[in-house]
Design goal:
The chain has about 150 residues and is mainly beta. It is built from 1 helix and 11 strands; from the N terminus they run E-E-E-H-E-E-E-E-E-E-E-E. The chain has a domain of about 100 residues: Metal Binding Protein, Guanine Nucleotide Exchange Factor, Chain A. It binds zinc ion (ZN) (2 copies). The site of one zinc ion has 6 residues, from helix 1.
C-alpha cells in the first residue's frame, strides 16, 4: 500500500501529519501520503458534516496512529451494502475517521481535523448528483455522479 506508484499525480507528497478533534482530547498522526482525497456530496455526508459535503483522506491503515484520547464508533450500512464504521470523539462529537468495508487495509480520515489543511487538494468528487445547488465542481478533479466503480 505504501508504493508511491499508487499516489495520484495531483496529491502532494508529505510526511507526518497530525490532527485532532475539536475539544483536543483526541490526537492522531498520519505517517504516509494519502492514497486519495475525495469530496463526497451524498446525503449521508451532508448530514454527518452538517454542511454541504464531507471530505475523506484515504491512507493505509498501518500509517494511522492514535496519539491520545478514546474514540467511540457506530456502524451504518448505506443501501450499497457497504458497511461504514464511523469513529468519533465521544466528548465533542468530532468525526475522526471511517473504516469502509469495501476498502480493507485503509482508513478514511476526515481531513478537516488535520492541524494543517492548506495542502489538501481533492482528486475526486463523488455523488455530485446530490450536491447542493450552489456548489460548483472545480475543473481538474475527477467527478462522478454517484459512487465510482
Ligand atoms: Zn473531542
Ligand atoms: Zn458521502
Amino acid at each position: 500500500m505504501s508504493d508511491p506508484g499508487n499516489q495520484p499525480e495531483d496529491v502532494p507528497t508529505q510526511g507526518h501529519r497530525e490532527g485532532g478533534c475539536q475539544c483536543g482530547k483526541v490526537r492522531y498522526r498520519v505517517g504516509s501520503k494519502p492514497l486519495a482525497v475525495a469530496v463526497c456530496h451524498c446525503g449521508e455526508c451532508q448530514r454527518q458534516s452538517g454542511s454541504a459535503f464531507a471530505m475523506s483522506m484515504i491512507v493505509p491503515d498501518d500509517s494511522f496512529e492514535l496519539l491520545s484520547g478514546d474514540l467511540k464508533s457506530f456502524s451504518r450500512s448505506p443501501k450499497t451494502g457497504i458497511t461504514v464504521d464511523c469513529h468519533f470523539c465521544p466528548d465533542c462529537g468530532s468525526r475522526i475517521y471511517h473504516l469502509i468495508s469495501s476498502m480493507p487495509g485503509t482508513v478514511s480520515i476526515k481531513p478537516g481535523t488535520l492541524d494543517d489543511t492548506s495542502w489538501l487538494n481533492p482528486n475526486f468528487h463523488v455523488w455530485t448528483q446530490n450536491k447542493q445547488s450552489w456548489v460548483s465542481i472545480p475543473e481538474g478533479p475527477r467527478s462522478f455522479e454517484t459512487q465510482p466503480e
